[in-house]
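Encode chain A's predicted structure.
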Amino acid sequence: MSYSETVETAREYYNSNDADRFYATVWGGEDIHIGLYQNPADSIFDASRRTVQHIAQKLTLDANKVVLDAGAGYGGAARYLAATFGCKVDCLNLSEAQNQRNRELNQEQKLNERIRVVDGSFENIPAVDQSYDIVWSQDAFLHSGKRDQVIAETARVLKPGGELVFTDPMQSDDCPVGVLEPVLQRIHLETMGSPAFYIECAAQNGLQLIALEDLSHQLVHHYSSVLAQLEQRQAEITKQVSAEYVHNMQQGLRHWITAGQQNHLAWGIFHFRKT
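Encoded structure for chain A:
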């Protein structure tokens, strides 16, 4: 299977033993995205699951709905949706390591019949037109260097009246040129999306904005929580993850936190409907 250079870089990263062990150890191996924190004592796992629950409340979900989770990671959201609402979910994800864990967890939780795990990229979704009622994605689109193509692909596979709901770390609309270079270098990207970019791109593909819930402050809180966990549990974590990886992760998280505190980053829940 052939991927674009940016997607292949992300695939190699998430397939690495260090990344796999880090996300399984610190996040708990279910949800690996930004969480919603109600108080400083919230665990990363609980805050991340709260994001899934909060997004799900924006949708009408039942056993008749077919969902695509684009960039599904370990499949935590898919298992929540399938177990809670009975809908069927296709997990599209580029990391074979994550997909294997996803399949194992689905089997353990007896959700195999409702969840299908697909190796692939959301730049070229392996599905026919109008296949899904809902496309769902959490903090994954940034890993594409062709985000306009990603939005076009999600619109293509949505049924008329279908909904796209996603989160993604992005630059703020008024972000000065060049200030995010330390963040971009850490995640091997040349650019990031922005709220205005996604709204315009969605409109060009027949996706009408229903709502944008700005939760940018949660990005800083989340990465601060991850950094605190790394520092508090460093001795334990470095038994499973290389010291070099932990050091680089700490440095990268500090860049994210600083950029967020300076209001150069944005994060929230985008909700669109296909017209």
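The mean pLDDT is 94.
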